[in-house]
Amino acid sequence: MATSDEQYLADLYNRFREQVMNGDTTDYYDKDELLDIYDYAQDEGDVMTQLYVFLVASRLYPDADSFLGERMGFFVSYIDNRAGADMLSRKGRADSPLWDILALGIQNYPDGDPSEQLARIIASHRNLDSEAVIKLVDMLRDLNRLPLLFANLNALKEIADDPRGLLYEAAQTAADSGRFPAEARDIAEELTGAEPFNLDNWVLLARAELALDHANEAVTAAEYALALDPGYAPALLVRALAQVTAPETRLPAIADLERLMGDDPSDTAALKALVEGLKAEGENERAINWLMRFIALDPKTNVYAASDIFDLEPEGELFAKACEAVYDALDRDENRWASLAAALESKERPFMAIRLLRYHHDHFKPLESAAEYLMSLYYMNRDYAGAIEIFGSCCQRHTDARVAEEEGSDNAPQVPQLSLTAFLLFAAASLMTGDYTNAAEVARLVLKNPPPPAGIDDRVRLQGIFAVARRIARYAAEPGTIPAAPDFDVLTDGL
Known about the structure:
Blueprint: H1 4-21, H2 31-44, H3 47-60, H4 65-78, H5 82-89, H6 97-108, H7 115-124, H8 130-142, H9 146-151, H10 153-159, H11 163-177, H12 181-194, H13 199-211, H14 215-228, H15 233-243, H16 250-263, H17 268-280, H18 284-297, H19 299-302, H20 306-311, H21 316-329, H22 334-346, H23 350-363, H24 368-380, H25 384-406, H26 420-432, H27 436-448, H28 456-477, H29 490-493
Helix pairs in contact: 1-2, 2-3, 3-4, 4-5, 4-6, 5-6, 6-7, 6-8, 8-11, 10-11, 11-12, 11-13, 12-13, 13-14, 13-15, 14-15, 15-16, 16-17, 17-18, 18-21, 22-23, 23-24, 24-25, 24-26, 25-26, 26-27, 26-28, 27-28
């Protein structure tokens, strides 16, 4: 539950944000309120509201840079205007650590050595508040100088208002980076020793131990937190992450992960671990249902999980249900559908990619990207009859569209516009199945009806297409000369 202070800040931020989004910036806000709104927006990653704070402040207070100056400098730096940030940093007050931290970042970006400037900050300032600590840690992280932070932690603790807050920021940044798990573990151990009843410290230690592949130690640290609060979600998550990979602890970990997903279906870390755990247990259908639930939360954003669904190879009604849900999430865009199939192919799931494209071909409006890709997958996997069938169905749709147009129908179907490569695929597939008549006829058709080349690239491409077509026509005329392995490649020579 939020404290009264937290609720006040949230309400203040939401009121300001709602007003500026509606074009109303006439309300009065004092300087402290604007600072609070800015800091809250920064924590939320709300860059637009941060910018509006500067605009409103400049209207209400001509001297806005006197109380927002440091934040302006960091904001300008954040949006990658280094020249502007440098100019602002040079206007800074001598007694302000934030200005010195900003200058440290600006003057050493991207690969300078901030050691001397950090030493001056430590020597010149006392009582670094939480804002200055966060900015300093973030700045050293952005400069790829976290080892410098670790080397100076003891000195920084001496000048920090909240030494434990400094340690937590350092440990969390080390853990999040993925590069310094040992440092994160050492700092977290210091924190748990100093504050043994702090849940977040134990979770931080568990995360660090897990990053070091110390699963048992991670579980132990997480269970210290759970002894204090059995329902603490971050501790349940890290314990489950440590347990889900081992067969003997996988089932209780899955139970914890499903509990977490039930409380927060948008938890991507829990979802990933849950899917892997269920997959290891052979519970693919359960995993697919969780993935579909995740996509349904925010279809346009979460559709990336679709490849994981089909990677699990759903069958029957579940396959159809997944196709329908994913198709809607893709905005019914055939090109994105083809991209989904390509993602499966890259995962060495060509037959699932074929099933996906075939479902699309049979149930949804086909365009060239999906139809031709399906033909190519059939051909590459030596299902020549499948490639021929798709070509035939596309031709039939052309015929149906032409008839509908001649009859004056307002509902003429949209059909794929097949390329020369599609015709070559059909000719090659016909050749491989012994249909030499169609192979020769289509190959000669390609040779007689080339599109006008638009440039040198098209001319080179056409030469490859013609070379393949000539070989197909020759082999179709003399079947006894066809080599066991064709000496042409429709999908590369004809590009």
